[in-house]
């Protein structure tokens, strides 16, 4: 099952040049490891303000790619951080890692189809 809603994705990017789409996706791919490391560090240190900020930032980026499952997990992580809820946060982050890896795979395949 696809993480990306391709109909929405295509509608969202329909007026953009292929090179711009590739550039935007590649930027996300390049930043991904750092973003996830920051989230992990926030969780490890119980840094809820930092976690809320970094989850919100990632949520905003993911919104561009029309990936509802990944978006929902980042929203949930952000909400948990804002409410200082530690219970279950590791599980949500684990699910987010799995879902975003699938998102990365789909985006990489999409880039290859454009080239």
Helix/strand/pairing class, anyone? mainly alpha
**Biggest sheet architecture:** none
Could you tell me the mean pLDDT? 96
Give the ordered list of helices and strands. HHHHH
Please give the count of helices: 5
Highest CATH level, the class: Mainly Alpha
CATH T-level fold name: Four Helix Bundle (Hemerythrin (Met), subunit A)
Tell me the count of domains.
1
The CATH superfamily is: HPT domain
Per CATH, the architecture is Up-down Bundle
Helix content: over 70%
Describe the overall structure:
By secondary structure, the protein is mostly helical. The chain has one domain (18-114): HPT domain (Four Helix Bundle (Hemerythrin (Met), subunit A)). Helices cover 79% and strands 0% of the residues. The chain has helices at 6-12, 18-44, 48-63, 68-82, 89-114. Helix 4 (68-82) packs antiparallel against helix 5. It is elongated. The protein starts with 5 loop residues before the first helix and ends with a helix.
